[in-house]
Amino acid sequence: MTMTYLKTLSLVGAMALATGAAAEERFITIGTGGQTGVYFVVGQSICRLVNRDTATTGLKCTAPSTGGSIANINAIAAGDMDMGVAQSDWQYHAYNGSSEFEGKKVDKLRAVFSVHGEPFTVVARKDSGATTFDDLFGKRVNVGNPGSGQRATMEVVLNAMGKSDADFALASELKPAEQAAALGDNKVDAIIYTVGHPNGSIQEATSTVDAILLPVTGEAIDKLVADNAYYAKAVIPGGMYAGTDNDVETFGVKATFVTSADVPDDVVYEVVKAVFDNFDRFKGLHPAFANLKEEDMIKDGLSAPLHPGAEKYYKERGWM
C-alpha cells in the first residue's frame, strides 16, 4: 500500500516537473534573408547554438528565410519576430526615422551585435560590355526584391548619382535565390547584392556564365561614404570568384543583429551568451565569419541603443 502510494506521489511529482518545464519553454524567431545569402546562415547559426542549451534555458529558436533587412526590422517592430539580421544603414534609418523609415521611426529597435562586413557587389555578364557601374545604365539590371536591404541600398546609390531605376532598360525585382539563374539565362545583364563574401549566389553566377565583378567607385560614392558613418570603403579580394582575378573596390555596410526593447533581457542575454561562449564554433559556421573579433562586434555598425540583455553579458565579460 505504502509502495503504491509512493509510486503515485512520484508520478504526480514527475508530471508537475514536466508541466513546469513545458511552461518554461519559450520560442524565439530570428528574421534572416534569402536562403543563398549569409543572413540566412547567421540566423541558422545563432539558432543552432541557442538550441544546444534548450534543456537549460528553455529557449527554442527558429530562423526562417525572409525578405531581408527592412522586412526583418518591420517584423520586429510589429512583434511578429523577436530578432533579426539587418544592414547597419537600415538599423540607423529605422531607429532615426529617416530614408525608408521616414514617419515610421522604430523607437524600440535595439542593437545586439554586428557580424560580417557586406560589400555592395555588382556582377555583370562579360558579353554585356560593362566594366564600371556607370556602364550599367541602359542595360538590364536586377535591383533586388522589395523589402531587402540590397534594393534599398541600390536606390541610395542611384540617388547619389542622380539616377533612378528608369535609367535601366529593365529593373527586375528578383530575390537573391533567383538572380544567379537570371544572369546565366541572359535575362539580365547584371545583378547587385549587398552581401558577405564568399557568397553562394555569386559563386553560382560566376561559374555558370562568363562574368566579372564591377568596381563601385567615384565622387558620388566618396561623398556617400564621407557623409554617412554607417558606410565604409570595402574591397572584395581578387581570385574569390571566377573571372575576377584582381581586388575590386566598392563600399559597404555591416550585417547587424537587432531586436526590440520589448524582448526580455534574459532572452537576449541567453542568445548573446550562446554565441560568444561558443565563439570559435560560431566563426567556423561560415567563411564570412572567419575574421570576426568580439571587440568589433559589440560596437561597429551599431547605431540603435544596445539592448540591456546584451550589455549585461558584455559587462560580465569585461568588454564594457
Shape: globular
Biggest β-sheet: count, sense, barrel? 10 strands, mixed
Put simply, the count of helices is 13
Order of helices and strands: HEHHEHEHEEHEHEHEHEEHHHH
Low-pLDDT runs of 5+ residues are: 1-23
Helix content: 40-55%
Strand content: 15-25%
Account of the 3D structure:
The protein has 320 residues and is α/β, with parallel strands linked by helices. Helices cover 40% and strands 20% of the residues. The chain has 13 helices and 10 strands. Strands 1, 2, 3, 4, 5, 6, 7, 8, 9 and 10 form a 10-stranded mixed sheet that branches. The longest helix has 23 residues, at 2-24. The protein is globular. Residues 1-23 have low confidence and may be disordered.
Summarize it.
It contains 13 helices and 10 strands. By secondary structure, the chain is of the alpha/beta class.
In terms of topology, how is this protein built?
Blueprint: H1 2-24, E1 26-31, H2 38-51, H3 54-57, E2 59-62, H4 69-78, E3 83-87, H5 88-96, E4 109-125, E5 140-142, H6 149-160, E6 170-172, H7 176-184, E7 190-194, H8 200-208, E8 211-214, H9 219-227, E9 232-236, E10 248-260, H10 265-276, H11 279-283, H12 294-297, H13 308-316
Parallel strand pairs: 1-2, 1-3, 5-6, 5-7
Antiparallel strand pairs: 3-10, 4-7, 4-8, 4-10, 9-10
Helix pairs in contact: 2-10, 7-8, 10-13
